[in-house]
Design a protein that fits this description.
alpha+beta; GTP Cyclohydrolase I, Chain A, domain 1; GTP Cyclohydrolase I, domain 2; two-stranded antiparallel ribbon; elongated
Length: 213
């Protein structure tokens, strides 16, 4: 069963989307007192249009198609063990201000007969991140899609991100990080599993910070 809020089919941009967005960007530039025909801004509307279409390209992805190929859990695998993919980077656009919130996700699940290929989990995160989002929904969508596709014993998703709408406007508090979690099944009730997932998330965040420090 598909989770509420997840499109049943992929959604493609409207015809002429790039030109429409470019025209709107030119209007915005004029509205703030700029001249979209001056040197330095002539190509900006087109660049903005292409960037926005890329940053929202997740609408064209069907999460259930990404998770469509699953495998039987290997014989002899210990029951109840946690499978974790940590340090998954993403960039999403806040649907309230169309400003980015880059972050790191950690996804874990306890198999119950089925597993999914390693590359599918980062692709799943990316498919949901490249839409207009709020972090809470992004976190839940990843958890619910994996839960629906694999019917595991448990699923846990942790996401940490810095929001430019907080860092650069309004309260203007750079460096503030928001962390959200979505736990399903045994990840909701088993403290040891939750702690293991949290440690993995801390490692993933630290590693990403080290790469960019």
């Amino acid at each position: 069963m598909r989770t509420k809020g997840i499109p049943a089919v992929s959604v493609t941009p409207a015809p002429g989307a790039e030109a429409t967005i470019a025209d709107a960007t030119s209007a915005i530039l004029r509205a703030i007192g700029e001249d979209p025909t001056r040197d330095g801004l002539v190509e900006t509307p087109g660049r903005v249009a292409r960037a926005l279409l890329e940053l929202t390209s997740g609408y064209a992805s069907d999460p259930y198609e990404i998770l469509g190929t699953v495998f039987e859990e290997p014989a002899g695998a210990p029951s109840g063990d946690l499978v974790v993919v940590e340090g998954i980077p993403f960039h999403a656009l806040c649907e309230h201000h169309l400003l980015p919130f880059p972050g790191v996700a950690t996804v874990g699940y306890v198999p119950s007969g089925r597993i999914v290929g390693l590359s599918k989990i980062p692709r799943l995160v990316d498919a949901f991140a490249r839409r207009l989002q709020v972090q809470e929904r992004l976190t839940a969508q990843v958890a619910d899609a994996l839960n629906d596709a694999l019917a595991p014993a448990g699923v846990g998703v942790l996401v940490s991100a810095e929001h430019l709408c907080l860092a650069a406007r309004g309260a203007r508090q750079p460096g503030v990080v928001m962390t959200t979690e979505a736990m399903r099944g045994s990840l909701r009730t088993d403290v040891a599993l939750r702690e293991a997932l949290a440690r993995a998330h801390d490692r993933g965040v630290a590693r990403r910070e080290g790469l960019h420090g």
